[in-house]
Design a protein that fits this description.
The complex is a heterodimer of chains A (787) and B (266). With 787 residues, chain A is of the alpha+beta class. Chain A has four domains: 189 residues, Alpha-Beta Complex (Aldehyde Oxidoreductase, domain 3); 163 residues, Aldehyde oxidase/xanthine dehydrogenase, molybdopterin binding domain (Aldehyde Oxidoreductase, domain 4), CATH 3.30.365.10; 172 residues, Aldehyde Oxidoreductase, domain 4 (2-Layer Sandwich); 147 residues, 2-Layer Sandwich (Aldehyde Oxidoreductase, domain 4). Chain A is built from 20 helices and 28 strands. Chain A has a seven-stranded mixed beta sheet with strand order 3-5-1-12-9-10-11, with helices on both faces. In chain A, strands 7-15-14-13-8 form a five-stranded mixed beta sheet, with helices on both faces. A four-stranded mixed beta sheet of chain A has the order 18-26-27-28, with helices on both faces. In chain B, 33% of the residues lie in helices and 23% in strands. In chain B, the strands form three sheets. Chain B has a five-stranded antiparallel beta sheet. In chain B, strands 9-10-11-12 form a four-stranded antiparallel beta sheet, with helices on both faces. A three-stranded parallel beta sheet of chain B has the order 1-3-2, with helices on one face. The longest helix of chain B is centred in the C-terminal third of the chain and has 20 residues. The radius of gyration of chain B is 18 Å and the shape is globular. Classes of the chains: A alpha+beta (787), B alpha+beta (266). At the A-B interface, helix 4 and helix 20 of A face helix 11 of B. The structure holds flavin-adenine dinucleotide.
Chain lengths: 787, 266
C-alpha cells in the first residue's frame, strides 16, 4: 500500500478550503444584477386559496415582480414528479396528484409556496411578501398517517380517494400465514418509525441565470445529483430543453438524501429569471428548511415474527402505513417499498416474508429518502423483532441471531434480494469481543449499586447499497437507470482530471477517488483532481445517494482507467518501438518485457498528445477515456453494532456508555474517511432513537420548527465510538467495495432501543426514547407495586 | 428584520432619555433573545438603544455581605469571576450552565432577567437567593420582580442597572437541560442564609419561575435532601409541551431539589 493509495488514511484534500471558509457554496456564487426570491408561504396546513392580491406588494420599493401559481400555469410550467412507479397489489398504478411549484387553488401543508416576490434584496422582498394578501378558506387537516385513510378524514387531493397513493405488497401471504399457523412462538410489535427533519448544515439554495442572448438557463443549486435535476426540470417540468439548461451543484454542505430531490424553489427561480431577465437567487433560512425540506421516515408498522421451539425463524410479516406528506417527492414512492420490504430478511434465513405497505398523503411536508432510506426502517423492524423474540423465548439474543444467520452464499431471500456474500458470525463475534459482552453482567451489577440501570442492545444489520443494476431497478419501477459514469482525462504533462457523475457533499470524493487514480497510475495524489457537479463539464451522472459513489462511481473510474491503460500501452509501444503485447505497466512505469527499456507515465502522456511517434491512421492522438458502468447487483454491507447504555432511574435519562461497531464494507479506500462516515451515521441514528422527532399538531402546524424544539444530537451526547471492520469483498464490482455512508444510521436505532428495553425490562418504549418517555415507562412498571 | 434607528448612549441617563423619546424602542444587551425575534419579524422596535457603551453597569463586586453584578455583565464573566467563585460558587455555576460559549460571551444577566424566559436559569438564582433588582428608578425584590412568563415588574422605560445577591452560606443550582435548546427543562436553585431558606424553580412552571414553600418549610428542620424525601409538588400548574409532561416536570423538581441540596451541602 502506498502512502496515498487504496487503504491509506489520507487526510481529506477538500478540507483545507472548507475549514478555512473558502468553500464555494451556491449562496457564495453571485451574478451581476442578481435579484432575490422571497416565497410567500401558507400558514395553514390545508386551505382553499380564494384569492391572491399582489398589487400592493408589487408597488413596494425594490420589488421587480410578484409571481403566482396562476401565471406558472399560464406559462405551462409543468408539475414536479415522483420518478418511481409503484403498482398496488390489485395491479393499478400508484395515484399521484399534481404538485405545482406554486400552489394556485389549494395549499396542502404549512410552508406550501403560493407566490414569490422577486426583489432587489431579501429584506425588501420580505417586506413585500408580507403585503401579498392571500384569502384562505381553512380546511380541517390530517397529519397522522394512521388516520389518513379513515372515512371522514379530510381529503387532500380531490383525485385521490382516501388519501391513498398505493396499497403495495411483497412476498407470499399464503406461505407466511401457514408458517404462522404452525409456529411455536409468535412475537408481535407495534412500531412507529419517527419522522425526522434532515437538517443538512447548508440549507438549500438556488441561483438561476437566464441568458437572453443565447436563450440558455444556468442553475446553481444544492443538489446531490445535478444531471438528474436537469433531466427532470427539462423533460418533466418543461423549463428548457436539456441542452439549453446547465445545472451546477458546487460545494454542497451535506444532504443526507434531502438534496436528491427536485424542489419547487429551483423551478420557480429558473422560471422567474427568464421572466424578469435577471439572475434570481433563493437561499433557504433554517425556518424554511424545517418546513420545506423533504422529511424522513414516518412509518406506522405492525410486525410479527414466527419461530419454532428452537428459536428458528419461520416467517415474518409486516403491515406498514407510510406517510408521504402533502405531495409525492422525487423518489418518495420507492423508499417504503423496494428500499424497505426487500431488506426485511435482515441477516437471517427466513423462509417466507410478507409485507404490505400503504402510502398515504397527509397535510405535512413531503417525505422522501433520508440517510438509509427504507433500510433503517426495515432494520428497526427486524432487529426489534429478533431481540424481543429472544427475550420472550429466554434465548440469549446473540445466540438467537446465530441460530438464524445466513451462512451460505449466494442467498436468495424471499423478498427479491440475492445476497452475494458476507460473514455475519465474524462481525458478531468481533463486536462481542470488542464490547466485552462477557463483562457486561458485572458492569450491570456495578451500575445497579449506583442506582443506574444498564442495558446492552445488538443490531446485526444488513443493507443494500449502490442501488443497481439499471435493468433490475427498471423492472422495479425506477424511471431512471442507476449506473455511473467517469471520464479520465490525462493531460500532456501527466496530471489527471477525473470527471465523475457522483457528487460529493461531505463524503470526501476528492480524496478517495484521487487515491484510486494515484494507486492505479502510480502518480502522486497531488497530480489528480476530481471534477464533479456541473452538467457542462461532466458527461452524465446519476449522483450520490444510497452509498453508491464507491461501489458504482469508483467502479466507473476503474473501467475508464482500464481503457487509459490500454491506450497508453499503445502509445508506449510506439515510443519504445516494441510490440504492444510486450508492454507492461506497473508503479507508474511502462516497460518492455524482458528489456531494460522503460517510459514514465508522464512521458507516455506527453507522447500521446504530441503524437510524433505514430500517425493518426495508426493511433488517435490524446489520452482520455470514458466509461459508463452498470454493476451486476446491489452490494450488501452488513455488520454488528452493540450499544451499552445506562439509565438514571430518577430522571429517566439515557447515557450511552459504550458503542461498538463492526462493519463489513468490503474493500476500504480510506479507513479514516470510512470511520468518519460510521461516526456520523451512528450520531444520526442515535439522534432518531433518543431525541429527534418532527411533530405536527392536529391543525397541521409544525411544532418542532426550529432548533429550540427539534433536538439534534451534539458531540457531548456520545462516548468515543469503537469502530472495527471485517472484510468480505463484494463480487459485484471490480473494487470489491460495498458502501459505508448509511450503515451507521441504519444499524444504530435498533441497538439503542434494544439496550434501553433490556435495561428497563419493558418493550413498551417508542422512539425518540426521551428521558420523559423512559421515566414514564418506568413509572408504569412500578405502578402495580405501588397500588 | 425591519428597519430601526440605532442608538449607543454612554450613560444610563441618556439611555433612559432615548427610551422616553422612542416609546416603542427597545434596549439591546447581548441581543441573544431580542435579535432572533427581530430576525423572525416577530418584534418591530422603531429604535434600538444599545447598552454596550454605557459605563458603570458591568462587573462583579463584593459589597459587604452582597455580591453586586452589573446588568451588562456577560454570562462568561460572571461564571469566571474569581470573587464570586470564592464567596458563592453555587451562583457562578448558573451562568456557567447557560447555552454555549457564544451565548455565554454575549448574553448578559440584565437581559436574561428582563426577558424572564420561563426556561431561563438566572431567574431561579435571583428568586432562590432573594436578590434585589436595582433599576434606574428603584429597588425591586426578586419575589416581586418575576410576574409570569416573559413578564416582570419593569415599567416602560425602566432599565436594570445591577442585581444584588446576598451571599448565602449554602447555595447550589441543579439543571436538567432541555435536549434541544439547552435551556432548563427544569432547574432548581436552593439556598440557606441564616434562617432564610429558599427553593426556586425555573422551567417547570406554566407561569414562570416560582418558589416551593412546602420544601422550604420542610428544610427548616434540617437543610438536607433527606428532609424533603417523599415530598412532591402537584403536576397542576406545571408546563405541558412535547418535551415533557406536567407530571414529569413536577417529579424532576423533587429530584433536582435533592441533588441541589446535596451539592449545597458538599
Ligand atoms: C442558542 C442560545 C442558547 C441559550 N441558552 C440559554 C440557557 O441555557 N439558559 C438561559 O438562561 N438562557 C439561554 N439563552 C438566552 C441567553 O442567556 C440570552 O442572552 C438572555 O436570555 C438575554 O440576554 P441578552 O443580554 O442577550 O438580552 P437581549 O436579547 O439583548 O435582551 C433581552 C430583553 O431584555 C431587555 N433588556 C436587556 N437589557 C436590559 C436592561 N438592562 N434593563 C431592562 N431591559 C433590558 C431587552 O430590551 C430585551 O427585551 C440562550 C440563548 C441562545 C441564543
Amino acid at each position: 500500500m502506498s502512502a496515498t493509495g487504496i487503504g491509506a488514511p489520507v487526510r481529506r484534500k477538500e478540507d483545507f478550503r472548507f475549514i478555512t471558509g473558502q468553500g464555494q457554496y451556491t449562496d457564495d456564487v453571485t451574478r451581476p444584477g442578481e435579484t432575490r426570491a422571497v416565497f410567500v408561504r401558507s400558514p395553514h396546513a390545508h386551505a382553499k386559496i380564494k384569492s391572491i392580491d399582489v398589487a400592493a406588494a408589487k408597488a413596494m420599493p425594490g420589488v421587480i415582480d410578484v409571481l403566482t401559481g396562476a401565471q406558472l400555469a399560464t406559462d405551462k410550467i409543468g408539475n414536479l414528479i415522483c420518478g418511481w412507479m409503484i403498482h398496488s397489489k390489485d395491479g393499478t398504478p400508484m395515484k399521484m396528484s399534481a404538485h405545482p411549484a406554486l400552489a394556485a387553488t389549494k395549499v396542502n401543508c404549512v410552508g406550501d409556496a403560493v407566490a414569490v416576490v422577486i426583489a432587489e434584496s431579501v429584506a425588501l422582498g420580505k417586506d413585500a411578501a408580507e403585503a401579498v394578501v392571500v384569502d384562505y378558506e381553512v380546511l380541517p387537516a390530517v397529519v397522522d398517517p394512521a388516520k389518513a385513510q379513515a372515512s371522514g378524514a379530510p381529503q387532500i387531493h380531490a383525485d385521490i380517494a382516501d388519501n391513498t397513493i398505493y396499497q403495495w405488497h411483497l412476498g407470499e401471504k399464503k406461505d407466511v400465514d401457514a408458517a404462522f399457523a404452525a409456529a411455536k412462538h409468535v412475537t408481535k410489535l407495534d412500531i412507529i418509525n419517527n419522522r425526522l427533519v434532515p437538517n443538512a448544515m447548508e440549507p438549500r439554495a438556488a441561483l438561476a441565470d437566464y441568458d437572453a442572448g443565447t436563450d440558455n438557463l444556468t442553475l446553481w443549486n444544492t443538489s446531490q445529483n445535478p444531471h438528474v435535476a436537469r433531466l427532470v426540470i427539462s423533460a418533466f417540468v418543461g423549463m428548457a430543453p436539456e441542452h439549453k439548461l446547465r445545472v451546477i451543484a458546487p460545494d454542497v454542505g451535506g444532504g443526507f438524501g434531502s438534496k436528491i430531490f427536485i424542489y419547487p424553489e429551483e423551478v420557480v427561480c429558473l422560471w422567474a429569471s427568464r421572466k424578469v431577465k435577471r439572475p434570481v437567487k433563493w437561499t433557504s433560512d433554517r425556518s424554511e428548511a424545517f418546513l420545506t425540506d423533504a422529511h424522513g421516515r414516518d412509518h406506522v408498522t405492525h410486525a410479527e415474527l414466527a419461530l419454532d421451539a428452537n428459536g428458528k425463524i419461520l416467517a415474518l410479516r409486516a403491515k406498514t402505513i407510510a406517510n408521504l406528506g402533502a405531495y409525492m417527492s422525487t423518489f418518495s414512492s420507492s423508499v417504503p417499498t423496494y428500499l424497505y420490504a426487500t431488506l426485511l430478511s435482515g441477516q437471517y434465513n427466513i423462509p417466507s416474508i410478507y409485507c404490505e405497505v400503504d402510502a398515504v398523503y397527509t397535510n405535512t411536508a413531503p417525505v422522501d429518502a433520508y440517510r438509509g432510506a427504507g433500510r433503517p426502517e426495515a432494520t428497526f423492524v427486524v432487529e426489534r423483532l429478533v431481540e424481543v423474540a429472544a427475550r420472550e423465548m429466554q434465548i440469549d439474543p446473540a445466540d438467537l441471531r446465530r441460530r438464524n444467520f445466513i451462512t451460505a452464499f449466494p442467498h436468495q431471500t424471499p423478498v427479491i434480494m440475492a445476497y452475494d456474500g458476507g460473514d455475519y458470525n465474524a462481525s458478531l463475534k468481533k463486536a462481542m469481543d470488542m464490547a466485552d459482552v462477557k463483562g457486561f453482567p458485572k458492569r450491570k451489577r456495578d451500575a445497579a449499586r449506583n442506582g443506574k440501570l444498564r442495558g446492552l442492545g445488538y443490531s446485526t444489520y444488513i443493507e443494500a447499497c449502490g442501488i443497481a443494476p439499471s435493468q433490475a431497478v427498471g423492472s422495479l419501477g425506477a424511471g431512471v437507470g442507476l449506473w455511473e459514469s467517469a471520464e479520465v482525462r490525462v493531460n500532456p504533462t501527466g496530471s489527471v482530471e477525473v470527471l465523475t457523475g457522483s457528487h460529493a457533499h461531505g463524503q470526501g470524493h476528492e480524496t478517495t477517488f484521487a487515491q484510486l487514480v494515484s494507486e492505479r497510475l502510480g502518480i502522486p495524489i497531488e497530480n489528480v483532481s476530481i471534477v464533479h457537479g456541473d452538467t457542462d463539464k461532466v458527461q452524465f451522472g446519476m449522483g450520490t445517494y444510497g452509498s453508491r459513489s464507491g461501489a458504482v462511481g469508483m467502479s466507473a473510474i476503474v473501467k475508464a482507467l482500464d481503457k487509459i491503460e490500454i491506450k497508453a500501452k499503445k502509445v508506449a509501444a510506439f515510443m519504445m518501438e516494441a510490440a504492444e503485447g510486450d508492454i507492461e505497466f506497473k508503479d507508474g512505469k511502462f516497460t518492455v518485457a524482458g528489456t531494460d527499456k522503460s517510459a514514465a507515465f508522464g512521458d507516455v502522456a506527453l507522447n500521446a498528445y504530441i503524437a510524433h511517434k505514430f500517425t493518426g491512421a495508426e493511433l488517435e492522438p490524446g489520452l482520455k477515456e470514458t466509461s459508463f458502468y452498470d454493476p451486476t447487483n446491489f452490494t450488501f454491507p452488513a455488520g454488528c453494532h452493540i450499544c451499552e447504555i445506562e439509565i438514571d432511574t430518577e430522571t429517566g435519562k439515557t447515557e450511552i456508555i459504550n458503542w461498538t461497531a463492526v462493519d463489513d464494507f468490503g474493500t476500504i479506500i480510506n479507513p479514516m474517511i470510512v470511520e468518519g462516515q460510521v461516526h456520523g451515521g451512528i450520531a444520526q441514528g442515535v439522534g432518531q432513537a433518543l431525541m429527534e422527532g418532527a411533530y405536527y399538531d392536529a391543525a397541521g402546524q409544525l411544532v418542532t420548527g426550529s432548533m429550540m424544539d427539534y433536538s439534534m444530537p451534539r458531540a457531548h451526547d456520545f462516548p468515543s465510538f469503537h469502530v472495527g471492520m471485517t472484510e468480505t469483498k463484494s463480487p459485484s464490482n471490480p473494487l470489491g467495495m460495498k458502501g459505508c455512508g448509511e450503515a451507521g444510521a441504519i444499524a444504530s436505532p435498533a441497538a439503542v432501543i434494544n439496550a434501553i428495553t433490556d435495561a428497563i425490562g419493558t418493550e413498551a418504549i417508542a422512539m425518540p426514547a426521551t428521558a420523559n418517555a423512559v421515566w414514564t415507562a418506568l413509572q408504569k412498571l412500578q405502578a402495580p407495586k405501588a397500588a | 428584520m425591519y428597519n430601526f434607528t440605532f442608538h449607543r448612549p454612554t450613560t444610563v441617563r441618556q439611555a433612559a432619555g432615548l427610551l422616553a423619546r422612542n416609546p416603542d424602542g427597545k434596549l439591546l444587551a447581548g441581543g441573544h433573545s431580542l435579535l432572533p425575534v427581530m430576525k423572525q419579524r416577530l418584534a418591530q422596535p422603531s429604535a434600538i438603544v444599545d447598552l454596550s457603551l454605557v459605563e458603570g453597569i458591568t462587573g462583579v463586586e463584593l459589597k459587604g455581605r452582597s455580591v453586586s453584578i452589573g446588568a451588562m455583565t456577560r454570562h462568561a464573566d460572571v461564571a469566571n469571576s474569581p470573587v464570586l467563585k470564592e464567596v458563592m460558587p453555587g451562583l457562578a455555576a448558573v451562568p456557567g450552565s447557560i447555552g454555549d460559549p457564544q451565548v455565554r460571551n454575549r448574553g448578559t444577566i440584565g437581559g436574561s432577567i428582563a426577558n424572564n424566559d420561563p426556561n431561563a436559569d438566572y431567574p431561579a438564582a435571583c428568586l432562590g437567593l432573594g436578590a434585589t433588582i436595582i433599576t434606574n428608578k428603584r429597588r425591586i425584590a426578586a419575589d416581586d420582580f418575576f410576574q409570569g412568563m416573559f413578564t416582570t415588574a419593569l415599567e416602560e422605560g425602566e432599565i436594570i442597572v445591577r442585581i444584588s445577591f446576598p451571599v448565602a452560606k449554602k447555595a447550589a443550582y441543579e439543571k436538567f437541560k432541555h435536549p434541544a435548546s439547552g435551556f432548563a427543562l427544569v432547574g432548581v436553585f436552593v439556598s440557606k442564609r441564616g434562617p432564610d431558606i429558599r427553593v426556586a424553580v425555573t422551567g417547570a412552571g406554566a407561569n414562570g419561575v416560582f418558589r416551593v414553600p412546602t420544601f422550604e418549610e420542610a428544610l427548616k428542620k434540617r437543610f438536607a435532601a433527606k428532609s424533603i424525601e417523599g415530598l412532591t409538588i402537584p403536576a397542576s400548574g406545571m408546563n405541558a409541551d412535547i418535551h415533557a409532561s406536567p407530571e414529569y416536570r413536577a417529579h424532576l423538581v423533587g429530584v433536582l431539589a435533592k441533588r441541589a441540596l446535596n451539592k449545597a451541602n458538599a
